[in-house]
Design goal:
The chain is α/β, with parallel strands linked by helices and about 425 residues long. The chain contains 12 helices and 20 strands. The structure holds inosinic acid (IMP).
C-alpha cells in the first residue's frame, strides 16, 4: 500500500488534473480534500476534454473509488451539473463515487454575501471565483454551517436554514441593501438536491482508512496551490482552505503517519489568477505570449491568468510547508522557442535581500526579483517521453530547478495528453 498527496506548489493551475489522471492508473482510490467548485481540473483523453470542478479526476478511470472529503465545500447544484455533464460524455459515476457526510454545503446566501463583500471592497478585491467558497468556510469555522448529512434530515435542515437566514437576511437588507432570500424556496430546492445525492453520502473517513488497511494505493488530490493556502499563502489574497499537503489529513480524516509521498505539481513558469502579489509577473508581450501559448485562461471563470517566470522563493516555501518528496514539472513545452529563461533566486526590498519567501504582503507587492538567466532551447519538447530526448538546455533548466529547490523532478509533463509525459520515478 502506498499513498501520495498531489499538491500545487504555486498559485494553482499547475496541471494537477493531468498528473492525477496519469497516477490514477495504479491507485484504487482518489480523494479530494479541500476547496470546492472554485477549482477547475482539465484532463484531455483521446482529444476529448474534461473539466472537473468538484469530482476527483480519478472518475475518468473505470472502477476507481472517488471520494469528496469532509474538507471540501459542496455546491449541490454545481455537483449535479458536473455529474450530468460527465454522463453526457459517457462517464458513469454511479458505483464508485462517495461524498463525506461532514462536508459543508454551499448555500445560495454564501454566493450572495460573497458578491456583496467583493463589490464593497473596491480596489482591495480578492478577485474570488464567486462560488461562495469563503463564506461557506466562514460558516464552518463559526459553527453554524450546514453539512451534507443535514440534507438527509429535513426537519433539522429546515431549522438550521431558518436560523441562518435570520442573520443573512438582516445583513442583506440592512447592510447590503439587497433583496432577502426566501427559506421555503431554498428548502424545496435543496430537498431536491438531497434526493439526487443521498445515495452517495457516506462515512468517507471510515471507507478511506479501510481501503488503506486493506493495502490499496490511495491518491489525495489537492486543489488550488500552496500560495493560496489560508495559513501559508499570500494572505489575504488566498482561498479559504488549507491547500497544502497537511490539508489531506484534516480534510479526509487520515492520520499524518499514513502519508507516504507528497508530489508537488510545478508549472515550468508561474501563473496567478485573481488579485494579489506576484513578484515575477511579466506584464509585457512575453507574458501575453506565454498566456496565449499556454492557454492560460481560468478553467472555472475563463479569466486570463497572469504569467511570469519561475520563482524559487515560492518553490522552496512550497517544499518546506508541504514536505515535498518530489515534483512533477508541467507545461515544459510552453517554454519551447524562447531565447532566454529567467529563474528568480531572491527578492530585494529597501536594501535587504530575501532568500526565503517573505510573509509581509507589502514586501511581496513592492520587492524586486533577482534573476538568474539561462539559455533557452529552440527544439520542440511536445510529447517527448524520454528524458534523454529532451533538448540539452531543457535538461539544464530541469537540473537547475532541482538544485535550487532541493527537490527531485520525478515527472515531466510535455503536453496535454495522458501519454505526453516523462516518468523518472514511479509514485506507486
Ligand atoms: P475563492 O477560492 O473563490 O475564494 O478565490 C480566492 C482566490 O483564489 C482568488 O484569487 C481566486 O482566483 C483563487 N483561486 C481559487 N480557486 C482557484 C483555482 O482552482 N486555481 C487558481 N486560482 C484559484
Amino acid at each position: 500500500m502506498s499513498t501520495v498527496v498531489i499538491v500545487g506548489t504555486q498559485w494553482g493551475d499547475e496541471g494537477k488534473g493531468k498528473v492525477v489522471d496519469v497516477l490514477t492508473e495504479k491507485a484504487a482510490v482518489v480523494a479530494r480534500y479541500q476547496g470546492g467548485n472554485n477549482a477547475g481540473h482539465t484532463v484531455v483523453i483521446k482529444n476529448e476534454k474534461y473539466v472537473l470542478h468538484l469530482i476527483p479526476s480519478g472518475i475518468l478511470h473505470k472502477g476507481k473509488k472517488c471520494i469528496i472529503g469532509n474538507g471540501v465545500v459542496i455546491d449541490p447544484s454545481a455537483l449535479i451539473e458536473e455529474m450530468d455533464g460527465l454522463k453526457e460524455q459517457g462517464i458513469d459515476i454511479d458505483d464508485n463515487f462517495l461524498i463525506s457526510k461532514s462536508a459543508h454545503v454551499i448555500m445560495p446566501y454564501h454566493t450572495a454575501i460573497e458578491r456583496e463583500n467583493e463589490s464593497r471592497k473596491g480596489n482591495n478585491k480578492i478577485g474570488t471565483t464567486g462560488r461562495g467558497i469563503g463564506p461557506s468556510y466562514t460558516d464552518k469555522v463559526a459553527r453554524h454551517g450546514i453539512r451534507m448529512m443535514d440534507l438527509l434530515a429535513p426537519d433539522l435542515f429546515r431549522e438550521k436554514l431558518a436560523a441562518n437566514l435570520d442573520t443573512v437576511n438582516f445583513l442583506l437588507e440592512n447592510l447590503y441593501k439587497a433583496a432577502p432570500l426566501k427559506a421555503e424556496d431554498i428548502y424545496s430546492q435543496y430537498m431536491k438536491y438531497a434526493e439526487r445525492l443521498s445515495r452517495y453520502i457516506a462515512d468517507t473517513d471510515v471507507i478511506i482508512n479501510r481501503e488503506m488497511d486493506e493495502g490499496r494505493n490511495v491518491l489525495f488530490e489537492g486543489a488550488q496551490g500552496t500560495l493560496l493556502d489560508i495559513d501559508h499563502g499570500t494572505y489575504p489574497f488566498v482561498t479559504s482552505s488549507n491547500t497544502i499537503a497537511g490539508g489531506a489529513c484534516t480534510g479526509l480524516g487520515v492520520g499524518p503517519t499514513r502519508i507516504d509521498k507528497v508530489l508537488g505539481i510545478t508549472k515550468a513558469y508561474t501563473t496567478r489568477v485573481g488579485a494579489g502579489p506576484f513578484p515575477t509577473e511579466l506584464k509585457d508581450e512575453l507574458g501575453e505570449a506565454i498566456r496565449q501559448k499556454g492557454g492560460e485562461f481560468g478553467a472555472t471563470t475563463g479569466r486570463p491568468r497572469r504569467c511570469g517566470w519561475l520563482d524559487m522563493l515560492v518553490l522552496r516555501h512550497a517544499r518546506r510547508v508541504n514536505g515535498l518528496t518530489g515534483i512533477a514539472l508541467t507545461k515544459l513545452d510552453i517554454l519551447d522557442g524562447l531565447d532566454t529563461l529567467k529563474i528568480c533566486t531572491g527578492y530585494t526590498f529597501e536594501g535587504r535581500t530575501y532568500d526565503d519567501f517573505p510573509k509581509e504582503i507589502d514586501v511581496l507587492h513592492r520587492c524586486e526579483p533577482v534573476y538568474e538567466e539561462m539559455d533557452g532551447w529552440k527544439e520542440s519538447t511536445l510529447g517527448i517521453r524520454d528524458f534523454d530526448a529532451l533538448p540539452a538546455n531543457a535538461k539544464r533548466y530541469i537540473r537547475r530547478i532541482e538544485e535550487l529547490m532541493g527537490t527531485e523532478v520525478q515527472i515531466i509533463s510535455t503536453g496535454q495528453k495522458r501519454d505526453e509525459i516523462v516518468v523518472l520515478k514511479e509514485q506507486f
